[in-house]
Amino acid sequence: MTTGLLALAHPERWRLTAALGFLTVSSVITMSAPFFLGKVIDIIYTNPGEDFTDSLTSLCALLSGIFLCGAAANATRVYLMQTAGQRIVKRLRTTMFSSVLKQETAFFDKTRTGELINRLSSDTALLGRSVTENLSDGLRAGAQASVGVGMMFFVSPSLAAFVLSVVPPLAVVAVIYGRYLRKLTKMTQDSLAEATQLAEERIGNIRTVRAFGQEVAEMEKYTNKVDYVLQLAKKEALARAGFFGATGLSGNLIVLSVLYKGGLLMGSAYMTVGELSSFLMYAFWVGISIGGLSSFYSELMKGLGAGGRLWELIERKPQLPFNEGITLSKDTFRGALEFKDVEFAYPTRPETSIFKDFSLSIPAGSIMALVGPSGTGKSTIVSLLLRLYDPISGTITVDGFDIRQLNPLWFRTKIGTVSQEPILFSCSIAENIAYGAEDPSTVTAEEIQRVAEIANAAGFIRDFPKGFDTVVGEKGILLSGGQKQRIAIARALLKNPKILLLDEATSALDAENEYLVQEALDRLMEGRTVLIIAHRLSTIQNADFVAVLGQVVLAQLQSTEECEKLQKSSSPQKHECLS
Ligand SMILES: Nc1ncnc2c1ncn2[C@@H]1O[C@H](COP(=O)(O)OP(=O)(O)OP(=O)(O)O)[C@@H](O)[C@H]1O
């Protein structure tokens, strides 16, 4: 974690070095103040009756100038540190986001979205603040405490030794407190992540919550989660209260004892009033600095508590490669797909095998319809082809190349998908269509309109008051199922992929919509290798091959009229029946 943090802070090294320079200047000035203020007091007290106006004026004017410089240096330090901190937080966030996006799909099956969001927003801020602003305040406190102690010894060694005897026990208390706080922060952030996860999922799916009338139950669940966060916060508040109460009390007691002992020393003429004042001011500074150091320590512990989890995520190596492997040339890549003796189980349920010895061949440029009852693994075949998961054994090849050899990022640019319920992002229709291009920013409005036209989408889009600039709402909620499908088809057309993976909508579209979607799909399928999870007889009839998953359905299909019709009507078709 430390090396990772250093790497993230590295680009800020000059900013941080400059901040350290300003920190030194401002600390030196702050710490010389008590000494000179003592001199001013001595000028006033030790020359009774004499006219000390001139020397007092010039010393005060000089000190004002120096203090002004100190203030400017301190302000610059705060600015530099804060901006460096924010830059580090930004880098932490982007590094973490990119690390999350590169993880294999199984990771997202196991990790909850809300947790990741919480890490991304709250933990990064906590860690960033603790290693910059807090570090700078800590350094300042440390420097001031040590200079202050030195000056206390310089002014009065015996008084200094007396005062410092109370520091070691305080330090032990601070360390214990810091450890406790670190543990507490980790627990707080974890339970906060759970609460965020719950809120995110329920708000994101408010229609389902509403349909089941579960609002009150959900409120209670959320309240329970944040109640636990509150309990932890109470524990932290209690620890904090005890710690700061104790340090505040010991600070005051120290000042009181300095006054007492110093008063005695002054009485026996070992100290001037100016020296005692300087000493008191130094003791005060040291007290404040130690307070600063302890809050630095506790903040650092909090940051480290949050940072541990963050680093696990940042350093996690994806189990499937993200952008490695070979790419095929235009001539070699034709789009012939083959599953050979594939065995697969989802990583989250390794004991439940979805396929064993599964084989299927889809020649380049042909349409393969996939049918079978629910849960037999049709969507799983699509996921395997997209290389969202790897088979346990057996191979999946593209033009004879094992897809494990291919660069998944490249390979996915050659595959188009349209699912039953296509997911659109909450931006404009134009942006959603452009998402299909390798570089969406280069897509022209004409291209978008052209593919929308082919996908039978241009008509209804133009009927919207804002046309292609209409925002579709989260996950495309402001559109109908058929409209979403046609936008998804336009998006796939823009990608112009060699291989197409389609999941036909089961939800009943009205006749006109169904016709428009079907027509758009037919245009999309032209000249590509297509694997389609088919739910309609017409789709099966138009396919070059049909693969049936699950023996039960095969028996059912063969006994139905539809199947007979299908077998008669499609003389060039070949039916592959798989068990
Ligand atoms: N991410 C996952 N993790 C674990 N198991 C999964 C996952 N996705 C699907 N499954 C399981 O894999 C099996 C096959 O699911 P799949 O979605 O491929 O079936 P399907 O034939 O496409 O079904 P449907 O026609 O209902 O969409 C099911 O038993 C399902 O519970």
TrEMBL record:
Keywords: Acetylation, ATP-binding, Glutathionylation, Magnesium, Membrane, Metal-binding, Mitochondrion, Mitochondrion inner membrane, Nucleotide-binding, Transit peptide, Translocase, Transmembrane, Transmembrane helix, Transport. It is found in: Mitochondrion inner membrane. It is a multi-pass membrane protein. It comes from the Eukaryota. GO terms for cellular component: mitochondrial inner membrane. CDD domains: ABC_6TM_ABCB10_like (cd18573), ABC_MTABC3_MDL1_MDL2 (cd03249). Residues 337-576 form the ABC transporter domain. PROSITE patterns: ABC_TM1F, ABC_TRANSPORTER_1, ABC_TRANSPORTER_2. It catalyses: biliverdin IXalpha(in) + ATP + H2O = biliverdin IXalpha(out) + ADP + phosphate + H(+). GO terms for molecular function: ABC-type oligopeptide transporter activity; ATP binding; ATP hydrolysis activity; identical protein binding; metal ion binding. Residues 18-302 form the ABC transmembrane type-1 domain. The chain crosses the membrane at residues 16-36, 56-80, 161-181, 237-259, 279-297. GO terms for biological process: oligopeptide export from mitochondrion. ATP-dependent transporter located in the mitochondrial inner membrane that catalyzes the export of biliverdin from the mitochondrial matrix, and plays a crucial role in hemoglobin synthesis and antioxidative stress. Participates in the early step of the heme biosynthetic process during insertion of iron into protoporphyrin IX (PPIX). Involved in the stabilization of the iron transporter mitoferrin-1/SLC25A37. In addition may be involved in mitochondrial unfolded protein response (UPRmt) signaling pathway, although ABCB10 probably does not participate in peptide export from mitochondria. Belongs to the ABC transporter superfamily. ABCB family. Mitochondrial peptide exporter (TC 3.A.1.212) subfamily. This is ATP-binding cassette sub-family B member 10, mitochondrial. It comes from Patagioenas fasciata monilis. The gene is ABCB10.
